[in-house]
Amino acid sequence: SMPSEMLMKILSYLDAVSLLCVACVNKRFYHLANDNGIWLKIYSSCFPPKRTIWKAKSVQTETVPLGCGPIQDRKPGYWKKEYILKQIAAVRTRVMQLVKPVDPYTGLPCKNKKAIKASGLSWIIVLKDKNGKEHVMEKPDLSFKDTSVTMFWCCASWPCLDILSTLKLFGVMPLLPDQSRAPSKNGPRRRSLIAEYNLSNLTESGVAVGADKLVQLFSVNPGLLVGLWKGKNEIAFVMASLHYHQLLERSTLGSANLQYAPPPNKPVLDDVDPEYGLHDYDLHLDMHSGSCTYLCGTFKSLFCRKDDIENGYLRLTVVSLKDNTKHVPLIGTVGLSWETEAFKGNVKDCYVMDVTLLDETRKPFWCFSAPVCMEVSSKASNLYDYMGHVYTTDYADSEGRVCVELVWLEETKEYFIVNLVLYISTEKVNNWCGTNY
Fold it and tell me: Helix/strand/coil (H, E, C) string of the chain?
């Protein structure tokens, strides 16, 4: 019942974020909070004026942004929109400056962590049940590595898995990032859909990765790991891995309903004999879990000939079984650590694999971060230098496959990678290189 003039006076003391929140109260508050006079004041105080208008009969001056014109000539909400667009553009410029420097080994930006902080970016998961009700899980624990970030959500009361239909992973950014304070989950934010997963038949459609005394792990592409309490159909925790190559784009440039689709690659002119196939590719490989890094290495000058094409895949041999000079050891005991409010554990022979494959121009060609496991192979080691159990790790998605063979040395208590092969889809190569393999 308060007069609009009094409400306008009160609203004129609010900051931009508070005004956007007030606008959600009802239609009347929405129209009052869109007032051009209030937003022009906020706009002018934030951005430098373009010109100064001198009043003839006063010593005072009035600073007005160039081209603003009389306030009444603008549609309601005009200066609010201008302010928001400029703020978003300023943050985007700041982030782009941070991601310009590139690591020569990974081909990825060096300052991803700083860029994420500057943008105010965070991540949430939204669990949707079969009745359409949504359960939002905020504030994951984050673990930053050279080429990926791992997010870990745990909660005392997860919805029952039997009633859940989907899980959506979103990147969330404040509409008006404030560098002086942490973003509030109650402030205006925008969501960008990163991935959507079907949980209806998780134990059947997901890949069983491993288990310990308390939990059983199931992996769903791309990069999602769900821990279930052993013997129960209840969620213990959720973990997601995102590779830096897709991280900022997918987390910021999509919409709440549609995932971001990157533009097609523009092939470069190749002066090498086409019979030679792929050449001068580099692989950066990370194997890790939490604070532990088991392997972080770069393999250069990978290539394949057209003879290496079979069943729709091109083969890139990274580590050969026959060349023991290139066999690589893993550091430490491999296992995926987890922790909730009441329990913690470690699932042996599980880890997160980050693959960054660069083409001959050092441009990221195939990148992913995903939880994987090591399985005992039925065959024994036939290598003279290694006498121990043989393990394999296999990963596959729509773009390619990774096959790793490891040998466990009982004497030194360590794994050695004795065979590592990448299989790249010919369809991906053709789309990327503009060729026809």
Answer: CCCHHHHHHHHCCCCHHHHHHHCCCCHHHHHHHCCHHHHHHHHHHHCCCCEEEECCCCCCEEEECCCCCCHHHCCCCHHHHHHHHHHHHHHHHHHHHHCCCECCCCCCECCHHHHHHHHCCEEEEEEEECCCCEEEECCCEEEECCCEEEEEEECCCCCCHHHEEEEEEEEEEECCCCCCCCCCCCCCEEEEEEEEEECCCHHHHCEEEEECCCEEEEEECCCEEEEEECCCCCEEEEEEEEEHHHHHHHHHCCCCCCCCCCCCCCCCCCCCCHHHCCCCEEEEEEEEECCEEEEEEEEEEECCCHHHEECCEEEEEEECCCCHHHCEECCCCCEEEEECCCCEEEEECEEEEEEEEECCCCCEEEEEEEEEECEECCCCCCCCCCCCCEEEEEEECCCEEEEEEEEEECCCCEEEEEEEEEEEEHHHHHHHHCCCC
